[in-house]
Amino acid sequence: MLLLQIRDHPGAELQERRCFVELSGLPEDRFRCRNLLVAPELEWRDLDGADVVIVGGAGAHSVTREHPFSRPLARVLERCVAEGRPLFGSCFGHQFLAQALGGRVITDLERKEIGTYSVQLTNAGREDPLLRHLPERFDAQFGHHDRVLELPPGAVELAFSDLCPNQAFRVVGVPAWGCQFHVELDERRILERARVYQEGYLPGDDALARLAAAVRPTPEASTVLRHFLAALR
Predict the structure, then answer these.
(1) Is 67 among the residues known to form the active site?
(2) Which of 19, 80, 91, 164 is catalytic?
(3) What domain range is 90 assigned to?
(4) Which of 18, 49, 50, 207 sits between 20 and 30 A of 201, alpha carbons compared?
């Protein structure tokens, strides 16, 4: 597993790694991690030895802006899809994958989702190997200001919420998926992450306390990463 991270906070970088390890069910030594803020010039050869590529969240960085890692990452993800390399994008990774393949991502503060929200499967989602094991409607953990407005050509919508469409998608015929919700976070881990990015996501003296009171368990969403690995097997 190659986990590509976009984290400018050491604590969040380490926490994200631990979260992916925990919910994947794999030993930690099966993961190799690279922070693209530290080493942005990603090349195809950097994927040598990786069976699976995961693009994680970003916290303070938006897909709608150009970053030093943006073009190198886009080229690598395009080639992953072209060659059928298993690929998964979570939150920022979901948005970035959609945009890299020709979709459209926007900043939409009126439809931001911070905390626990319900997700509804589409007809395609109910048949998808990642999501078909889940209830038709389930809770998941979110933390985003941007959203996928238009899916790229060849992608199918798998899930939506009351606020946002395109909460999950797959590139048809290719083992490449994106989920806007954080498949690596449960109700405890979302609060840890929120404390790190409180200033940008939860301004106000009591915002974090209100979030903590509203967060719900998300046992079904926490199985998505394992279903992803099972589907690849």
Answers:
(1) no
(2) 91
(3) 2-232
(4) 18
**% residues pLDDT > 90 (the chain):** 91
pLDDT digits (tens, 9 = 90+) for 105-160: 999 999 999 999 999 999 999 999 999 999 999 999 999 999 999 999 999 999 99
Cβ of 190: how many Cβ atoms within 10 Å?
A: 24
Query: Is position 184 annotated as part of the catalytic site?
Result: yes
Q: Tell me the pLDDT tens digit for each residue of 167-181.
A: 999 999 999 999 999
Number of domain units in the chain: 1
- The active-site residue out of 13, 16, 157, 184 is 184
Model confidence pTM above 0.90: yes
CATH of the domain at 207: 3.40.50.880
